[in-house]
Amino acid sequence: MSTHKMNANRSQNQIKHILSIGTICGLILATLLVLGVRDATRAAAQSSFDTLATVDAAASTAQIGNLANGASDLQNQVATLQAQNQQLRAELQSAEAQANQYEQQLAQAVQIIQQIQGQPQTSRRFR
Question: Is residue 56 within 8 Å of 19, Cβ to Cβ?
Answer without folding.
Answer: yes
